[in-house]
Design brief:
This protein is mainly alpha-helical and 104 residues long. It has 4 helices and no strands. Helix 2 packs antiparallel against helix 3 and helix 3 runs antiparallel to helix 4. The longest helix is centred in the first third of the chain and has 29 residues. The N and C termini lie far apart (49 Å). 7% of the residues are buried.
Length: 104
């Protein structure tokens, strides 16, 4: 139990949040988003017939399709659970990083 409390305190400091409830809600958002994107990706694979492709092509397409869907689901679940501001700040940092990677 002491390790969990220590870890929660570490996350609160790192993420600049104040309550343990916020940590739990943030972790729930991650869990829901991850689970939902797996379900959605399965539907997309079936819908577009990606099962018939070779593993390399299928995995590449899955990554290209799943990444933006995951980001959208993350924000949707964050909004529902009242953690939108936290995740929106993280998303903006990610967009800036991606922008720098593609800026020549």
């Amino acid at each position: 139990m002491k390790k969990i409390i220590k870890y929660f305190n570490h996350l609160k400091e790192k993420w600049e949040i104040k309550s343990n409830l916020d940590i739990i809600l943030i972790l729930v958002v991650f869990a829901l988003s991850g689970s939902a994107v797996l379900k959605v990706s399965g539907v997309i694979i079936d819908l577009f017939g990606l099962d018939e492709l070779s593993r390399v092509y299928r995995w590449t397409l899955q990554i290209l399709i799943i990444t933006p869907i995951y980001q959208i689901l993350l924000l949707i679940f964050a909004f529902i659970l009242g953690q939108f501001n936290f995740f929106w700040q993280k998303e903006k940092k990610l967009f800036k990083l991606i922008g720098r990677l593609f800026h020549f």
